[in-house]
Amino acid sequence: MTAGSRRPTPEERGVSSRHDKLRGRARLLERLRRFFVTSDYLEVETPILVPSPGLDLHLDAFTTASPHFGAAPGYLITSPEYQMKRLLAEGLPRIFQIVRCFRRGERGHRHNPEFTMLEWYRAGATMESLMAETETLVRSLLSEATDMPLAGAACDVTQPFRRMTVAEAFTRWAEIDEAETLRLATEDEDRYFFLLVDRVEPGLSRLGVPVFLHDYPASQASLARRRPGDPRFAERFELYVGEVELCNGFGELTDPAEQRRRLLADQAARRERGLPVYPVDERFLAALESGLPACAGNALGLDRLVALALGAEGIEEVMAFAVDTL
After folding, report:
1. Are 248 and 216 contacting, i.e. CB atoms less than 8 angstroms apart?
2. pTM for this entry
3. What secondary structure letter does DSSP report for 160?
4. 199 torsion bin: left (phi>0), alpha (psi -120 to 50), beta (else)
5. What are the chain's domains?
6. Angle formed by the axes of helices 81-90 and 282-291, nearest 10°
7. How confident is the model over 57-90, as pLDDT tens digits?
8. Contacts for 18-23 with beta carbons within 8 Å, 24 or more apart?
């Protein structure tokens, strides 16, 4: 050590490492935007404060303290889906967005109550074609990663991604057949999710390559359309990279009557479970009534993708400030 110099403290080394990851994050965002722009997508920005945050039973929103929409409060978005689909219905055929989203009760190495979502929609796309596009995007951003501790297992992203239906995965690792998988998803959701987390997801991670889990039971459809020819299942997919669930994509539901039925059923279910009951977004439904084209869309957790690409052990390492540092 030269005279007058000193070793950096552990705290200083930690800050330096985080700054390096923030620079890596910025470079990855540049590559991601280039991917979409060269694929003829338009980058859009939609509001963060909205009249309805969605009615998904498994997501809770942050509510503003005072009225914003007439006499009603506003909500921070859990996803920009409603507003992006309105733009799609207006005639924009390919759109993407990198946006801050907010979900109550999410905290940990893969969760933060405020996080960044990459969401995109393409008119004329199918679930299958959007899975292929997602594979191309994820491989291009992760192909140089040699160490992905967040994934929890060795995962070779240079190999073709596997595709497996939910029923096939439950048969293989939970040892129950298709009929029982459908029954649990409809009648015993707690057991269904226990088996998914305890048996199926660890099984997927041991395959050594990323895996698309697709064709979810219709009761888990959310805003996805049912499978033509087999309405027991929905055109929904999730991509797993090791133990990390990276995205949630749909062949999108375009039927306004069916969408209204689902939203009202979700409201009733939230009320029955003692959860906050959010309003139905009537302008979103009006957009479907005006004619949402056949399309597919995907919502990808950008912080998780960056953490995988940069070899981080948790998303807090690739965020300027996670909630526990505020």
Report:
1. no
2. 0.93
3. P
4. alpha
5. 10-325 (3.30.930.10)
6. 30
7. 999 999 997 788 888 899 999 999 999 999 999 9
8. 18/317, 21/306, 21/310, 21/312, 21/317, 21/318, 22/318, 22/320
Q: Which letter, b or e, does each residue of 6-37 get, where b requires 16 or more Cβ atoms within 10 Å of its Cβ?
A: eeeeeeeeeeeebeebeebbeebeeebeebbe
Q: Token pair of 34, please?
A: 């280039």
pLDDT (tens digit, 9 = 90+) per residue, 189-221? 999 999 999 999 999 999 999 999 999 999 999
Q: Which amino acid is at 201?
A: E
The token pair at 14 is 């930690």
Give me 325's structure tokens.
């540092």
Residue carrying structure tokens 């009951």: 277
Separation between Cα atoms, residue 121 and residue 86, nearest integer Å: 11
CB distance 267 to 55 below 8 Å: yes
H/E stretch holding 282 reads helix 282-291
